[in-house]
């Protein structure tokens, strides 16, 4: 097997709840993502998917374990990972363009180049004409397009997405899924995508990782067999429905309500 | 834009209504006790034209500006430090809260001993009266920065310094502006208080003089002048805010 793009090995994380109540969130999670692969993670809510993604991004330090990109261990944020956040989390005082420029600014890219690159990304996510709009003037879907452009503008090795469409209505969500697939195919990126929607995971990903309830371990890994480019029709196919109920069975197993 | 057009006539109507009510209430009341707005406005215009009022106003504004500027320069960074550092907060919160509770006027005898009766003492009182309002508001603003935005900053590789300048600072600017507005109003209060409680000069001296002579149009014209000054200062800051923070002003 060629060297994986992203490799996590034996990640473990516990949080302190109250004074001495230790809650284990991640329990020895290891897996590898190949270059240009699209991997989705599904798991019951509160299982630690988001914590996992934040560790990969470097926002949270693991108790033990390593994150490697191209074989190089990474510590702390930056260095080739771009994150798209669930509640968009755009800077309200920056315009759409200013938000897309943020990461480039942090990377000390000169103003002219940064502007040009950000404008290119504004165009790629279909926001031409909204460069100078502030986030509060944009719809949720448009705000998340800015969020995606902001993450991709820094040309990350791995794109991390933390339930990026979870806060959107269903139509917008479907639309953005298709656009994300188009962007992914065009830009050739490695993607790690956390979601609680089984359908979304199957529709988008090459592989789906199923996390157990807390503490999260990898319960199963499923290969998604559908050819690309995919479209809405695939969601109605018997194989899709079969895969969905299989994942659902795995998820239910161990979930206590 | 639409809202501004709708509000301006209401404001004008309210002002005119207020003046009409005042004019009506002053009818038949002795001139030693009260004066109608017509007389007050006429007096205001006359004293402005004669140069008495502009000179006094400039003198008063001098310690207002110096005292307020000093308060801003100290309170804004200090508010940030208290709001963002638990250590600084633990050390300074009790002290500032305790001093904040003391009426600044109660400090006047102390200020006289330290700064005398003149310019320095007036500056000190303006500083004292506006400082805490700014400090408390800026502290609240720095504390309230959305942690999610700080995470975004860190995720994109911002270090401590850039988190401060590119995320915390812009995120708390609306609070800073509120602090400036409240602080400026207090500073105007202090400007006059200082001239009444310390050596009587400028507007304060005029006020005392006119009160002693029961010169109601004169006294009320000074109070009206203070109203106008407060209004102009606040509207000026609001305009500045909508220029500098369009994202915030439009959103709220």
Description of the molecule:
The complex is a heterodimer of chains A (257) and B (252). Chain A is an alpha/beta fold and 257 residues long. Chain A has two domains: 1-80 and 156-257, 3-Layer(aba) Sandwich (Rossmann fold); 84-155, no CATH class. Chain A is 34% helix and 25% strand. Chain A has seven helices and ten strands. In chain A, helix 5 (170-187) links the parallel strand 7 and strand 8. The model of chain A has no long low-confidence stretch (mean pLDDT 92). Chain B has a single domain, classed as MetI-like (MetI-like fold). Helices cover 85% and strands 0% of the residues of chain B. Chain B contains eleven helices and no strands. Chain B has helices spanning 2-26, 37-50, 52-84, 86-100, 108-115, 119-143, 147-155, 160-197, 202-212, 216-244, 246-251. Chain B is globular and about 70 Å long. Chain A binds chain B through residues 54, 57-59, 77-79, 81-83, 85, 87, 89, 91-94, 102-103, 105-107, 134-137, 150, 154, and chain B through 146, 148-149, 151-158, 162, 166-167, 170-171, 173, 245-248, 250-251.
């Amino acid at each position: 097997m060629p060297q994986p793009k992203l490799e996590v090995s034996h990640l473990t994380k516990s949080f302190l709840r109250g004074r001495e109540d230790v809650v284990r969130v991640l329990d020895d999670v290891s897996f590898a993502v190949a270059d240009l692969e699209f991997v989705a993670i599904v798991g019951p809510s509160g299982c630690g998917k988001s914590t996992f993604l934040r560790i990969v991004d470097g926002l949270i330090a693991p108790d033990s374990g390593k994150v490697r990109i191209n074989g190089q261990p990474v510590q702390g944020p930056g260095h080739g990972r771009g994150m798209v956040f669930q509640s968009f989390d755009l800077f309200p005082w920056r315009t759409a363009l200013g938000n897309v420029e943020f990461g480039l600014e942090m990377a000390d890219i000169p103003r002219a180049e940064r502007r040009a690159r950000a404008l290119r990304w504004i165009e790629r996510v279909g926001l031409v004409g909204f460069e100078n709009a502030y986030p509060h003037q944009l719809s949720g879907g448009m705000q998340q397009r800015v969020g995606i452009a902001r993450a991709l503008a820094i040309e990350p090795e791995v794109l991390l997405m933390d339930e990026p469409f979870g806060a959107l209505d269903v139509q917008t969500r479907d639309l953005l899924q298709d656009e994300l697939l188009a962007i992914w195919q065009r830009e050739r990126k490695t993607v790690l995508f956390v979601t609680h929607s089984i359908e979304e995971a199957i529709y988008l990903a090459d592989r789906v990782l199923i996390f157990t309830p807390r503490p999260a371990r990898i319960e199963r890994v499923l290969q998604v067999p559908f050819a690309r480019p995919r479209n809405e029709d695939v969601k109605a196919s018997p194989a899709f429905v079969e895969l969905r109920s299989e994942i659902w069975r795995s998820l239910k197993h161990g979930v206590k309500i | 834009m639409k809202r501004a057009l709708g509000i301006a006539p209401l404001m004008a109507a309210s002002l005119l209504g207020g003046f009409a009510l005042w004019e009506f209430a002053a009818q038949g009341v002795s001139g030693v006790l009260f004066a109608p707005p017509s007389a007050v406005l006429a007096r205001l215009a006359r004293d402005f034209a004669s140069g008495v009022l502009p000179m006094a106003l400039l003198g008063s504004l001098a310690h207002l500006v110096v005292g307020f500027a000093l308060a801003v320069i100290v309170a804004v960074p200090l508010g940030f430090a208290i709001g963002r550092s638990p250590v600084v907060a633990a050390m300074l919160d009790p002290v500032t809260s305790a001093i904040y509770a003391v009426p600044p006027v109660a400090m006047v005898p102390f200020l006289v001993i330290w700064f005398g009766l003149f310019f320095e003492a007036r500056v000190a009182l303006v500083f004292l009266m506006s400082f805490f309002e700014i400090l408390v508001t800026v502290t609240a603003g720095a504390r309230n920065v959305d942690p999610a935005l700080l995470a975004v900053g860190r995720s994109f590789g911002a270090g401590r310094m850039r988190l401060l300048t590119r995320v915390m600072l812009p995120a708390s600017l609306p609070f800073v502006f509120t602090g400036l507005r409240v602080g400026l109003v207090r500073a105007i209060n202090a400007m006059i208080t200082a001239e009444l409680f310390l050596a009587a000069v400028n507007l304060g001296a005029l006020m005392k003089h006119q009160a002693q002579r029961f010169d109601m149009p004169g006294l009320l014209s000074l109070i009206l002048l203070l109203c106008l000054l407060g209004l102009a200062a606040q509207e000026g800051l609001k305009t500045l805010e909508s220029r500098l923070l369009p994202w915030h002003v439009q959103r709220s």
